[in-house]
Q: What sequence folds into this?
């Protein structure tokens, strides 16, 4: 047998070896993952042979070489000055970790896959903080922030550890972090842990938002342990013991508005400039040689923040903690805590039960973004060579946001081109939703699933439960006539058809979102050692725009149950 024949035999053998079990513990159901892996068996085989986790290493740290590191090495809570990072290692879990879920897409960003990382327990121990990959220098980032409108002083990574940085085969640089991995110098009065409840939400939301097309951090893995974590979920004097959860997550950068604010507040202007220079060099290279690079950078952040919030609003997402320490300098959605997706369309929806004043209610998210940008403008003040021009850039936020939001609504309506009345047409549709208590997601989606002629004749099934509500509005017929007239002008130009409209709309309006009750069901099952619902949700939410049989069977596109209205989500995690 020559070398070529031997190679062919080896490849065939590798591609048909039985799949490895998903977890090292028998309590984890593997079947849901085997379905995904089998369909990609050949691609997994070559990736597996190319880079098993045993040979995986972090790249050389740019951050720890570039910026000053805290000289205090003891892991004690303290105020830190003249440093951006403190070296601190994760606290090992006391009880064995179990894998709840893995994200194939996020693993691929690290040149890994689900099979290679579970060939032994090395990855599991790294992903929960029990052990370190060779070359890792774990650290916690120092930052500050305005929380609910007030300066909160030093905050920092209180339960997150940056394990290291990795440059993948495509040349992309990713910062790998654990959340829920134990105390750091920035833990304040906390224990540095996260509970399973909040970890499930973070894992699912990160990946759901990515597949909805919203800029976001990514979640690689979710692990759980029976370590006893005490939390008073609603701050009402009723603490309970919960399980520990650890999420491995990724971002091109974890620098946030608060990273600059703490340096400005403490007069560490040289470090502030070095952080901004670093972000520009790494993520805005076209601005490096610009004469007004700091102004242009600020302008870019204003625009991308407006775009991010417009995308939130378009998919009905509300971030429950829009503090400056949770706003990324790259305009990524980060730090998923008490978030929420709209069920019925309610502009006053408050996703966070800890937000007593409704500061971060759905309709006020753009306002929160503007406030945070104002704080960033203040922090960067010493870098601007023209502060008045910088303020004018800030003042453009409302206009930029409005334009991007209306553009998003045009896409949701399947409109081509721009007409002045488009915003009014979309607003009328939203007002009808609000009046009729219609579901936000399904109103858009069902509008995309019925031809206009059938809509005009009310020729659609009552299974279209949200559309049926809308059709009971007094203005439904007149609105539908205006909408049909607007779309007909596209057809008159011989550039469109109703079938194309429906197809476009279905690509812009998800059928499935991470509703609170779905997350709650998954959390309850996971708390009892059954991770199948977490995995099913994760699988469905990777393709939210396509109708899926298992999602329909699970009722993910059905009206939310009545008990879901009583659900509360707080900052406790």
A:
């Amino acid at each position: 047998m020559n070398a070529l024949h031997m190679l062919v035999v080896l490849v065939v053998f590798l591609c048909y070896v039985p799949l490895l079990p998903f977890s090292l513990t028998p309590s984890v159901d593997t079947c849901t993952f085997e379905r995904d892996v089998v369909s990609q068996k050949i691609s997994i085989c070559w990736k597996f042979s190319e880079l098993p986790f045993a040979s995986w290493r972090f790249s050389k740290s740019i951050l720890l070489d570039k910026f000053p590191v805290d000289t205090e090495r003891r892991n004690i809570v303290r105020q830190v000055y003249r440093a951006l990072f403190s070296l601190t290692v994760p606290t090992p879990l006391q009880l064995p970790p179990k894998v709840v879920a893995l994200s194939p897409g996020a693993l691929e960003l690290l040149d890994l896959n689900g099979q290679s990382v579970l060939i032994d327990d090395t990855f599991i121990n790294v992903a929960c903080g029990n052990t370190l990959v060779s070359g890792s220098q774990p650290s916690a980032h120092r930052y500050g922030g305005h929380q609910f409108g007030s300066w909160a002083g030093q905050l920092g990574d209180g339960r997150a550890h940056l394990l290291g940085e990795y440059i993948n085969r495509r040349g992309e640089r990713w910062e790998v972090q654990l959340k829920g991995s134990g105390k750091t110098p920035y833990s304040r009065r906390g224990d540095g842990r996260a509970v399973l409840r909040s970890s499930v939400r973070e894992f699912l939301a990160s990946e759901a938002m990515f597949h909805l097309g919203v800029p976001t951090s990514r979640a690689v893995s979710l692990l759980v342990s029976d370590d006893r974590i005490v939390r008073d979920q609603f701050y009402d004097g009723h603490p309970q013991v919960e399980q520990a959860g650890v999420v491995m997550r990724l971002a091109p950068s974890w620098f946030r508005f608060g990273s600059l604010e703490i340096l400005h507040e403490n007069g560490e202007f040289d470090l502030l400039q070095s952080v901004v220079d670093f972000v520009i060099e790494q993520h805005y290279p076209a601005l490096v040689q610009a004469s007004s690079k700091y102004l242009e950078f600020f302008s870019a952040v204003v625009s991308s923040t407006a775009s991010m919030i417009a995308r939130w609003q378009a998919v009905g997402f509300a971030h429950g903690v829009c503090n400056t320490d949770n706003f990324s300098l790259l305009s990524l959605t980060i730090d998923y805590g008490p978030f929420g997706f709209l069920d019925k369309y309610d502009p006053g929806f408050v996703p966070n039960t800890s937000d007593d004043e409704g500061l971060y209610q759905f309709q006020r998210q753009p306002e929160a973004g503007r406030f945070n940008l104002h704080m960033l403008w203040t922090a960067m003040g010493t870098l601007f060579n023209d502060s008045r021009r910088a303020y004018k850039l800030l003042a453009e936020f409302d206009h930029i946001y409005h334009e991007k939001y209306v553009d998003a609504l045009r896409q949701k309506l399947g409109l081509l081109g721009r007409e002045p009345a488009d915003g009014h047409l979309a607003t009328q549709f939203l007002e009808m939703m609000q009046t009729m208590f219609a579901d936000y997601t399904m109103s858009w989606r069902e509008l995309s699933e019925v031809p206009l002629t059938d809509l005009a004749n009310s020729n659609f099934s009552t299974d279209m439960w949200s559309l049926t509500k809308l059709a009971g509005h007094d203005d439904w017929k007149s609105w539908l006539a205006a909408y049909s007239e607007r779309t007909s002008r596209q057809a008159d130009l011989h550039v469109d058809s109703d079938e194309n409209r429906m197809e476009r709309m279905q690509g812009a309006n998800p059928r499935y979102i991470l509703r609170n009750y779905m997350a709650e069901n998954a959390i309850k099952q996971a708390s009892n050692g059954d991770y199948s619902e977490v995995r099913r949700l994760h699988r469905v939410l990777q393709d939210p725009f396509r109708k899926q049989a298992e999602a329909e069977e699970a009722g993910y596109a059905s009206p939310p149950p009545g008990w879901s209205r009583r659900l509360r989500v707080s900052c406790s995690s």
The two ends are 60 Å apart (CA to CA). The CA atoms of residues 378 and 467 lie 46 Å apart. The first strand starts at residue 85 and ends at 87. The mean pLDDT is 91.
